[in-house]
Amino acid sequence: MNGKEVAALIQQRWEILDRLLSVSRLQLSAIEQGQMSELMRVLSEKQQPLNQLIELGDQLGAANADNSQERHWESDDARQRCRKQQEECEEMNLELLAIEAECEAKLSRNRDELRQRLERVDSGWQAVSGYADHSTQATTGGSLDLSSD
To answer: Which domain holds residue 35?
Structure first.
């Protein structure tokens, strides 16, 4: 694979990562605001660029298999631009991983908070049920004859 082809793949990778960063920021915002339907929409939107990135990774893997010393570049400047863009891709990838970790942590906290609220509601229902059962038994106990002789 020549330098021009590698540069085109790196450019595609940069564009996909840029798109994923935008969508991941929307994902984080949806989680922070508790908008689960928006989160599902964003996750659905994220699937296509993720698939593209995987596919592109296969193509880049083939380029990595080539001897880079034998790769022909139009100019040393073109090679340096490609290298710089690849470094940006690595930084973007790290940022994506950080956002994903933050999203996972926030979702875990939200799940734990929801579980605690449900447990409190359940405890409240158990208390109300216990009180209702007790008051029913108290009002239905025994009979009293109120007739006069």
So the answer is: 3-111
